[in-house]
Design a protein that fits this description.
alpha+beta, elongated, 7-stranded antiparallel beta sheet, single chain, 6-stranded antiparallel beta barrel
């Protein structure tokens, strides 16, 4: 009993992974010892021990605390082509149609910057406000020209009527016509200039003339970088910031000349980031280049990222495995496969359940049960490892049951589960 109390004191003072392992070993150890000292006959105790070996010899139970400490990660058994793939490298790229340089059609002083780098913006959203006294003059000129046009237009139709009736001379009518068309041209030109400044001439009056112009986004996307500060003096057509729409992010892969015949539109490619391995993405080839890339002997192949694009940024380097055939096999990340005693295994999650009285026969172990909380169960499954390509390996079940696509496989932490299982087997007695 004194020994149990010492272990419980260690558990309460240390939350590390190794104490988690020690907790599991202690719980199994004392549960086994309890079966021999609880007053049951040797025959009954022997029967219970035999059932435990038959049912639980390949099972590991973890508490929530241990699950987090080991950093268990789960995945699924996927159908992948591992025998007919082409390995390439490339980088992520956004097409020019999905990138916009935000500029101003006139100079001025930056009054406000309304966004930050990384912000998502929508087409037509105001990003920057610019102040310039010249804007006031342009609006005034437009309103003056508009007023003169109204007067000239009325005179034009009056002179036209008189000319049709031969009341006025043809020369007078021609002079009025020339003035009328000239003013129409001036008004239209000024209207287009205001439109470039995002000023709606239809709503412009002498009362709402402003010296501030709103610079708006021309596409949906994220602000990739900002090149100005508040108070900056900007010149006409200078880039103020850039907006990038990552929704059409694609990857440029580079294939050598001798492998080009294997690559076709519609093929799938599995991608991993060179500098941040462990996360897998998929892409679909939509175009194959017809010219060599610069001085290299490679041809660019363009593939669109499908599915989740989280964490992907233009310019990232990738390694890709292009599927060149359609022979798919059950596969898991290679980190999910553990070798023990010359045999290969994977661990799958079976279920989670609260600790029951059966888990700890002695009532004085109630504190241990409360500490463990809900148990998460994993089962060791023997498999045969097949072809390995990239980060995935083919697996074949050694039992009569086929793998289900809904099975949750341990992709990270299987090594620790195997250590805990072998540790538990070593303490059975």
């Amino acid at each position: 009993m004194k020994r149990l109390n010492n272990h419980l004191q260690i558990i309460s003072n240390n939350k590390s992974f190794f104490i988690g392992l020690l907790l599991l070993s202690i719980a199994v150890f004392y549960a086994g010892c309890g079966n021999k000292t609880d007053g049951l006959s040797k025959e009954v105790a022997g029967e219970e021990h035999e059932v435990h070996e038959e049912d639980d010899g390949n099972v590991v139970e973890l508490t929530q605390q241990q699950f987090s400490a080991i950093d268990i990660q789960l995945g699924s058994i996927e159908q992948k082509n591992l025998s007919a793939t082409l390995k390439t490298t490339g980088f992520l790229k956004v097409p020019p149609q999905n990138k916009a340089s935000i500029t101003s059609s006139t100079g001025g002083t930056v009054q406000n910057i309304l966004v930050r780098e990384g912000d998502y913006v929508q087409k037509g959203q105001t990003l920057v406000t610019i102040m310039n006294a010249q804007f006031v003059k342009m609006q005034q000129e437009y309103l003056d020209a508009q007023s003169q046009l109204l007067f000239t237009e009325a005179d034009y139709y009056r002179q036209k009527e008189l000319s049709d009736k031969n009341v006025s001379s043809q020369k007078s009518f021609q002079q009025v016509t020339a003035n009328y068309h000239s003013l129409k041209t001036s008004v239209n030109a000024l209207r287009q200039q205001l439109a470039l400044l995002n000023i709606n001439s239809a709503n412009l009056t002498f009362e709402n003339i402003s010296s501030v112009v709103h610079i708006k986004s021309s596409i949906n996307g994220n602000i990739s970088h900002i090149d100005i500060n508040i108070g900056s003096n900007i010149e006409t057509s200078k880039s103020l910031m850039e907006v990038v729409d990552n929704s059409r992010l694609h990857v440029d892969l580079f294939v050598f000349e001798q492998d080009l015949s294997k690559v076709k539109e519609g093929q799938q490619a599995d991608l991993t980031l060179i500098n941040t391995p462990g996360k897998n993405y998929t892409a679909k080839i939509f175009a194959v280049g017809n010219a060599f890339e610069n001085e290299t002997k490679t041809i660019p192949v363009h593939a669109e990222i499908t599915g989740d694009k989280k964490g992907l940024i233009e310019g990232m380097n990738v390694t890709a495995f292009i599927t060149t055939d359609q022979n798919f096999v059950p596969s898991v990340p290679s980190t999910a496969i553990i070798n023990n005693g010359g045999n290969d295994f994977i661990f799958i999650q079976t279920h989670a359940h609260p600790v029951t009285k059966h888990d700890h026969a002695e009532t004085e172990h109630e504190e241990v049960k409360q500490e463990m909380g809900e148990m998460i169960t994993f089962e060791r499954i023997p498999i045969k490892r097949g072809v390995t390509n990239g980060n995935f390996s083919e697996i074949t079940s050694l039992s009569a049951e086929e793998f289900s696509e809904h099975v949750k496989v341990v992709t990270n932490g299987a090594f620790y589960l195997m250590a805990m299982l072998t540790n538990t087997e070593g303490h059975e007695h």
